[in-house]
């Protein structure tokens, strides 16, 4: 480790101990050397003894800075690992970071563009429009077309800082995993690896730009979602140039109400957009917190969302999509047996799971939810509770489903903030039922046949030759198998003959020795022994060659 790494490690340890995070570990899980090292750092005392555990962790992450703040935000969505109290505390983490110097921003932008800013842009604003833990945003006007744009540039040396913190987190996770044992429910190593994937994706702005272009193409003609235009030729690993939008933040309820926005329709469209991205496009925005979602100022009676920040996108397999849709439908039909079957069929839990016990566990968790009105039932919490229940039956963690669960909780929270009476089920059920109908049955079969038809038509002329070749291969295979079988049988015959001769030789030799010991005429015993030796030699050399048929 470098000197800077040691400094960072000491800073993390100091913050951890100042907030008493070490005291949250059960004594029985802390070995003697851990307690000894803690006593050696006697000057680092717990300064927040009266604070709850979740609050201490939140404050420590705020103290440690952006990478840990983003980690806490991600961890707050893992309610399969944390209690509700801890998750709520971490969800309050705010990513507010002072901007870095404009001179550094200008230098970084010009390095990526390989050209002076003034040669491509007018009105570059040295005052950042926004500043976050990973990047900073400035506004400008494109010289080529006079369009207003924003330039999003990574912070200086952010990659090195993130990777150093990730390395330290991984080492701490390995230590925690050792202390907590193989069956601990927190699974720190797995959590850190999930976070590594997320944060490293956000460090590549070129990837974010490509994600934005794909999402924009999926909703080009949509009246519900608009994705700003990306100037792809001006997008690089550390820089994005994109269309600037003039819109209202979705969290600005006063602004939305002031312009007369149809909040009920806006809330319903948020749910529809989520399910469309997941089930129609299999490409969903997985970071839909209010800071990334805006509402167009045009046509407030027919509101349109505007999405930003595409560093974290999610995808599902076709099987995952079908099982999820059927899970939701089975839940609202109170078909708990079907839910248990779906978890086993999908491979999320072991095929050896006791389906009856699993069904009963699901029923215990889900049935009380029906005491609520439908407009109070949360899809995200249904999914969360099902995952929690499945964990007791050794469910394997599905990172793509955790990402989906987080996004669903965001969408629901957003929808009910806009319109508290939002009935998610009424909005989503027709979509899910329609999608399921398209995936199974005659309509789905016809659709798949149409999709495969060009491929089959292309291969049809080759079909007779392929059939002939396969029949020929089959016949040759049968012939070769028959030859192998004949050779095997001959080898077995040789082996039996050899074994018979060797056994006979042993009998003759033993008989000759016994005759000699009993004083029988010498020539008889000698003849018997000699016959045995000759028989043994013949039997030995008649053995089949080892490994050959």
Automatic annotation (TrEMBL):
Protein name, as recorded: Probable protein kinase UbiB
Residues the entry annotates as binding ATP: 129-137, 152
Residue positions of the active site: 287
Localization terms from the record: Cell membrane
Principal cellular location given in the protein's record: membrane
Membrane topology: Multi-pass membrane protein
EC number in record: 2.7.-.-
PANTHER family given in the database record: CHAPERONE-ACTIVITY OF BC1 COMPLEX CABC1 -RELATED (PTHR10566), PROTEIN ACTIVITY OF BC1 COMPLEX KINASE 7, CHLOROPLASTIC (PTHR10566:SF113)
SUPFAM superfamilies referenced in this protein's UniProt entry, alphabetically: Protein kinase-like (PK-like)
Ranges in a coiled coil: none
Function text: Is probably a protein kinase regulator of UbiI activity which is involved in aerobic coenzyme Q (ubiquinone) biosynthesis.
UniProt similarity note: Belongs to the ABC1 family. UbiB subfamily.
InterPro entries named in the record: ABC1_dom, Kinase-like_dom_sf, Prot_kinase_dom, UbiB, UbiB_bact, UbiB_kinase
Name of the top EC class for this enzyme: transferase
Keyword list, A-Z: ATP-binding, Cell inner membrane, Cell membrane, Kinase, Membrane, Nucleotide-binding, Transferase, Transmembrane, Transmembrane helix, Ubiquinone, Ubiquinone biosynthesis
UniProt xrefs under Pfam families: ABC1 (PF03109)
Organism: Shewanella surugensis
Residues annotated as transmembrane: 500-517, 523-541
């Amino acid at each position: 480790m470098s000197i800077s790494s040691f400094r960072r490690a000491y800073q993390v340890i100091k913050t951890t101990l100042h907030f008493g995070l070490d005291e949250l570990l059960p004594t029985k899980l802390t070995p003697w050397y851990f307690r000894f090292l803690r006593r050696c750092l006697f000057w680092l005392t717990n300064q927040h003894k009266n604070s709850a555990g979740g609050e201490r962790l939140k404050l420590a992450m705020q103290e440690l800075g952006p990478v840990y703040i983003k980690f806490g935000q991600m961890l707050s969505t893992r309610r399969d690992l944390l209690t509700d109290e801890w998750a709520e505390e971490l969800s309050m983490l705010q990513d507010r970071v002072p901007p870095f110097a404009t001179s550094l921003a200008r230098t970084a932008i010009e390095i990526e563009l390989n050209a002076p800013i003034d040669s491509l842009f007018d009105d570059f604003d040295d005052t950042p429009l926004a500043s976050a833990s990973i990047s900073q945003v400035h506004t400008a006007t494109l010289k080529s077309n006079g369009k207003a744009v924003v330039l999003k540039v990574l912070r200086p040396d952010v990659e090195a800082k993130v990777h150093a913190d990730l390395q330290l987190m991984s080492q701490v996770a390995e230590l925690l995993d050792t202390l907590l044992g193989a069956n601990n429910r927190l699974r720190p190593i797995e959590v850190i690896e999930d976070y590594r994937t997320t944060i490293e994706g956000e460090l590549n702005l070129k990837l974010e730009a490509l994600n934005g272009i794909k999402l924009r193409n999926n909703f080009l003609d949509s009246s519900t979602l608009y994705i700003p235009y990306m100037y792809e030729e001006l997008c690089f690993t550390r820089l994005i140039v994109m269309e600037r939008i003039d819109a209202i933040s979705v969290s600005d309820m006063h602004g939305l109400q002031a312009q007369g926005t149809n909040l009920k329709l806006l809330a319903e469209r948020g749910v529809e957009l989520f399910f469309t991205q997941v089930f129609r496009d299999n490409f969903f925005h997985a970071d839909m917190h209010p800071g990334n979602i805006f509402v167009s100022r045009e046509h407030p009676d027919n509101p349109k969302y505007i999405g930003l920040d595409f560093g974290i996108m999610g995808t599902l397999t076709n099987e995952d999509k079908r099982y999820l849709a059927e899970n939701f439908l089975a839940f609202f039909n109170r078909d708990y047996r079907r839910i248990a079957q779906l978890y086993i069929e999908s491979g999320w839990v072991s095929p050896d799971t006791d389906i009856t016990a699993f069904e009963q566990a699901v029923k215990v968790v889900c049935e009380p939810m029906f005491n609520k009105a439908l407009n109070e039932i949360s899809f995200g919490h249904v999914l969360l509770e099902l995952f929690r229940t499945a964990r007791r039956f050794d469910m394997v963690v599905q990172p793509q489903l955790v990402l989906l669960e987080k996004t669903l909780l965001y969408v629901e929270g957003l929808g009910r903030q806009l319109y508290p009476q939002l009935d998610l089920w009424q909005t989503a059920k027709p979509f899910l039922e329609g999608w399921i109908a398209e995936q199974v049955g005659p309509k789905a079969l016809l659709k798949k046949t149409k999709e495969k038809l060009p491929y089959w038509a292309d291969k049809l002329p080759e079909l007779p030759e392929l059939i002939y070749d396969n029949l020929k291969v089959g016949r040759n295979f049968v012939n070769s198998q028959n030859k192998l079988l004949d050779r095997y049988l001959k080898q077995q015959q040789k082996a039996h003959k050899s074994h018979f001769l060797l056994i006979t030789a042993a009998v003759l030799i033993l008989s000759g020795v016994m005759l000699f010991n009993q004083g029988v005429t010498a020539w008889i015993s000698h003849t018997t022994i000699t016959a045995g030796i000759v028989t043994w030699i013949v039997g030995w050399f008649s053995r089949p060659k080892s490994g050959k048929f």
